[in-house]
Predict the structure of Amidohydrolase.
Amino acid sequence: MPTIIENRRNLHQIPEIELTTQKTAQYIENVLDLYDCTIDHPIPNSVTAFFDNKKEKTIVFRSDMDALPMEENTDLEFKSTNGCMHACGHDGHMAMVLEIAKYTKESNYNVLLLFQPGEEKPGGAKPIIDTQFFKQFNIAAIYGTHIYPELEKGKVYTRPNEMMAGGCEFEILVKGKASHAAQPQNGINALTACVEILQKSLDQEEKTFDDNTFHLLHFGTFHSGQAFNIIADQAHVRGSIRYYDPKVFDQIVNIIEQNMNNAIKKYKVQVNFKVNHHYPPVLNNEELFHTLYKNNLVSKLDSPVLISEDFGYYRNVAPSIFFFLGTGDTIPLHSNKFTFDEDILKKGVELYRKLLTTKIPF
């Protein structure tokens, strides 16, 4: 059987992005073929392995699979050379879940290992859930882990309820009519209309929410106009929304749409608002957290983080909880120089082995 380090390094050398994880899936399947388990593929390039211990309930260990489209800039002997990179630690996540296959016989539950593509984008969790794949199992809990810089090296953190923010990318396209700037009566100024939508949305957002309600409305790019003396016929904006409470997300979207409609009436422009990439917040099951915390399996994270993860969808399937495994003072995630001390992976596996036998309240 390959070691956890061998698996991590082998996977690190074959990074693939989004849902196109064919080589990664094949590697994982080749390793899992060494065990007595049932392998499946709920969506293309995903892999699951079911270990039937003849128990009533099943626990799930999920790992993401996809890498990032960036050239690696490390001195690792096993660095990737294909223009993609595991700069977010998913190679380590996969190695930990593959390692737990060695210990599934210890479990008080059946065990399902889940390898999911597309976490970075466009999302793999929801497509897997939508296949109804999980309905064949009586799932007691779903576990997931992400290695995380700035937290104490080798220590596992989590918290009840809010763990990671929900987030979406969106774009606004405003269409007007071009004309000479000296003849404004012949044009419809998309730039002016768009600026008003943005400014009024930010003003209204500030008035709607108090300081205790976490929310973020961010406009990141703005493109409009072709020349100084031409009225712009288009304006294009891209931005993001972050939140913990889904009602807050709905309120922010409503604010944007209200101001879009006002601009349509005032300026006679056409406006299109599109959400391209939306993940719900990761909300950990409170009972599950307290069970693990009182058994000294985890440390409590002080506050939730603003980054997003599509693990949040799994709470619609069964009670779920997400962990951070500290890497210590390392280069940040998503850097082309990111790496970590592989010894921390053993700490993640120690937690997973304990979860195999931990009695949970479901």
Observations:
- The radius of gyration is 23 Å.
- Helices lie at 4-12, 22-32, 90-100, 125-130, 190-208, 246-267, 286-294, 343-357.
- The chain has two domains: 4-163+281-357, 166-278.
